[in-house]
């Protein structure tokens, strides 16, 4: 069973990102403050949940949270500042999008930068330990998936509806065949033999 939160502060927010390892699309982060009475037996790290469960939980989280925010950082910015900085920037933007300022932040992972003078703690595998980080992981994943499904309509040959921009064999084959799009991260190794290709 996941714990509600890490600190003794009433307004603690959990934050997490999705899409760090993708070749295309944004890196998306969410921040969530849950009420003190919140409880959910299904909620867990989004990677452990089916798409149906994630979408079901998204409705519960957005309805019951004290506040939530999310943010996309797009490929041009990822290429400019690198994926780690883009992930942290997405989390910062998600936190500042909260309707209420948190008193404490817990972050999934081990890298973060101070945000708005709010004390914070980084927690490895935090999305499998604390409900507010798990909730943020579900929102980040569902908002990002929805975005990838939308841009899939523009470039169906990459099948982003299915692979969500991750480096699947099929996605790499499509890049080889059609080349990269404006949604691809040019700073990423899009193809294993990219060095030999004149992209």
Account of the protein in words:
With 199 residues, the chain is an alpha/beta fold. The protein has one domain (12-152): Nucleotidyltransferase, domain 5, CATH 3.30.420.10. 36% of the residues lie in helices and 15% in strands. The protein is built from six helices and five strands. It has helices at 51-64, 75-81, 83-96, 131-152, 160-163, 169-178; strands at 12-18, 27-33, 67-73, 104-108, 120-123. A five-stranded mixed sheet has the order 3-2-1-4-5, with helices on both faces. A hairpin with an 8-residue loop joins strand 1 and strand 2. The radius of gyration is 17 Å and the shape is globular. It starts with 11 loop residues before the first strand and ends in a 21-residue tail after the last helix. The mean pLDDT is 95.
What key attributes describe this structure?
199 residues; Nucleotidyltransferase, domain 5; globular; 5-stranded mixed β-sheet
What is the gist of this entry?
The chain is α/β, with parallel strands linked by helices.
Write the layout of secondary structure elements.
Elements: E1 12-18, E2 27-33, H1 51-64, E3 67-73, H2 75-81, H3 83-96, E4 104-108, E5 120-123, H4 131-152, H5 160-163, H6 169-178
Parallel strand pairs: 1-4, 4-5
Antiparallel strand pairs: 1-2, 2-3
């Amino acid at each position: 069973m996941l714990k509600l939160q890490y600190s003794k502060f009433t307004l603690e927010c959990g934050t997490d990102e999705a899409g760090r390892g993708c070749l295309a699309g944004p890196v998306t982060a969410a921040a969530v403050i849950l009420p003190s009475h919140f409880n959910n037996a299904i909620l867990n790290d989004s990677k452990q949940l089916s798409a149906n469960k994630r979408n079901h939980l998204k409705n519960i989280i957005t309805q019951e949270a004290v506040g939530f925010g999310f943010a996309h950082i797009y490929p041009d910015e990822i290429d400019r500042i690198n994926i780690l900085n883009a992930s942290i920037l997405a989390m910062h933007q998600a936190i500042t999008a909260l309707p209420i300022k948190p008193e404490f932040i817990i972050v999934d992972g081990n890298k973060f930068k101070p945000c708005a003078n709010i004390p914070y703690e980084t927690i490895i595998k935090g999305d499998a330990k604390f409900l507010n980080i798990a909730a943020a992981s579900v929102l980040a994943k569902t908002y990002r998936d929805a975005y990838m499904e939308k841009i899939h309509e523009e470039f169906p040959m990459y099948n982003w509806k299915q692979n969500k921009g991750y480096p699947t064999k099929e996605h790499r084959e499509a890049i080889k065949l059609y080349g990269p799009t404006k949604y691809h991260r040019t700073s990423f190794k899009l193809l294993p033999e990219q060095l030999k290709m004149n992209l």
